Amino acid sequence: MGDKMNRRENKIFSELIWNDKSTVAAFKDKYNVQERSIRLAIKSINDDLMEAGLPTIFENSEGELSIEDKDQIAVKEFEKFIQNYNFYSYTMTKNERHTILALILLNGREYITVDMLKNEIGVSRNTILNDLQELKSWFEDREMTLKAKPHVGYVIEATETQIRENILKLMEVNSEEYYQNGYMLNVYWWLLLKQLDTMNSFENLKNILLEEEEETGVILEDYSFYEAGIELMIILNRLDQGKYLISFNDESKEEIEISSKYPFSKSVLKKIGRKYDVKITEEEILMFTKHLRGKRYLKGERNSATSLDINVMIAEAIHLISGQLGIDFYLDFGLYDLMVAHMKSAVYRVMNGEVLVNPFKDEIINDYPEILQIVHKELENLENFIGKKFREDEVMFLVLYFASVIEKEKIQSNKNKKIPVALVCVTGRGTVQFMLAKLKILEDIIDIVSVSSHHNMNEIEQSGAKMIISTIPLPNSKLPNVAVRSPMLDDQDILTIQQKVFELKEKEQEEIEEQENRVIKQNPQKDIQGAFYNLLSKERIELDYPAKDWEDAIRCAGKLLYDTKTVTEQYVEEMVNSVKKHGPYIVVCKGMALPHADCSKGAIEEAASLVRLKTPIEFGSVYNDPVRYVIGMSIKSAESINQAIYDMMKIFGDENNMNKFDSLPDEQAVLDMINSFQKQKI
């Protein structure tokens, strides 16, 4: 390596890798330095690139900077080039140096001397001593102790959980800005990784994770995939040192044990255990499951049946927002399913103090202020239930879900799909749905056949896509591709995509005609009607019950379940206690309540009961009282939850439908009416 690379030089290099062109003047303005400083930085980078046998940065006659023939070089080659730097060939800032020192101390097997630190990162002994003095308070703020023993060295006194959590935070905080382009083309991040990845396992661990994704169909969003890889590396590194979690004392342990993420976590860790010959304990599986529950997923996510309360409150929120905006969002099962999936993770994040950053916050505020205001208001019940308020970034993702439905309403559907296209998005499900809605304007010439993470390119290859639309540059893609300027897809982005499609149509008309016969429709409307009907029976229907109050009405619905041996007595009590504890959140739309309990409290068999009240009863709901219909629920699977609630919202969310039920003479007539809705596919 030539002269020492610094942060500015690294950023210039990375930007030129991912973007087509820039100028010296643009870099000068961006970093607020003299032109000479930029040119010296470019010369330093070029010296190292030449030494590595890679294309160098050149300036054309118009003053534009770019890397010569970069498209002929795999990004992985530039990544290898970055990895070759060490502490002696990279100039760290003070904060970067403190992070490296903290990481070395946290990950140390034993006492670490000043000389060891000095030799490792290439600074003076006095600099190390000053840094350690300043780091003492950093550790104290995190309830850890930096202990110094004369003539022996330094060691961290903390629990294993504390050590792992803080190693993870250091990696995440210092990698977030470097991961925006999908690859870590940053010297400093690789220096961090070298300190942590003592077994050179990172790539293998990501492959194991990818293998599990392909086996299960559960696909992590890109940044979540990266986070999971880091977490696995930390686990493996600590286990290799003999550092095990002694216990897992989490308030949500029971819920984690039956979480849908538990089998995924167990399978991944068992594979790692076999490959690296390390013992995998139950505590390790539970902790990784806990991390996975806070991740964001592109597809295949399954929700635990233990959070039926959340499903119900989401159903209520959708119905209220529908009324506010004059659009029947609850008729869109895709929206409901996505919101449930996102909210399960969102609730977990807010309960555990985890932060999710929404990079499109400003655009959402500007474009959808009305939806934002309404969503904020209608989330209050859920916030009151969990005892926490959602961060603004979380709310923004929910706004995107509703905005996606509005965008679909604006664009008339056209089934004549032409060019099969893969969508690569690194920011998660909400953004994907928004982009899909925006791209409807081009649906006469494109068909979205794959929605994939950047790390899972196999899916694209298997989808039959002839073109890629991506939120990040893909310089080494085998397929024609367009990197949009923003996932918000402005007019210029749409025009660029359209031009690329027309180019492709001219060249591959025959392939297009063949492909049209096997096009995959993106996000088909799921035909789930019938779930509610299948849960009911004549024995679990009671008409014109003279309820004294809301509690009596709920007990009637619960008794119908108990008498048919689908729940225990405890379950009925929990149905009542849930409302006493959390209020009338079960009144999800005008005139209809969904009392329920956690399946662990005595759900024997999946079933539903229906009670038509003789006189409407006040449950205490501001918007939806009085209640005319009480539907008791005993649900054990996540799929049943979503399908049954969706069915009920479609039927009882419509006042005209409810009026039809008011005049029905007997239980069989009720079943026949519900079955008729199924046949009509309302």
Estimated share of beta-strand residues: 5-15%
Helicity level: 40-55%
Largest sheet: 5 strands, mixed
Low-confidence segments, given as residue ranges, are: 302-306, 411-416, 512-529
General shape: globular
Q: What's the CATH class of the domain at 531-680, please? A: Alpha Beta
Mean pLDDT: 79
Report on this structure.
This protein is an alpha/beta fold and 682 residues long. Among the domains are: 7-84, Arc Repressor Mutant, subunit A; 305-408, Orthogonal Bundle (PTS-regulatory domain, PRD); 411-516, Rossmann fold (3-Layer(aba) Sandwich), CATH 3.40.50; 531-680, Mannitol-specific EII, Chain A. The chain has 30 helices and 16 strands. The strands form five sheets. A five-stranded mixed sheet has the order 12-15-16-14-13. Strand 2 and strand 3 form a beta hairpin. The radius of gyration is 29 Å and the shape is globular.
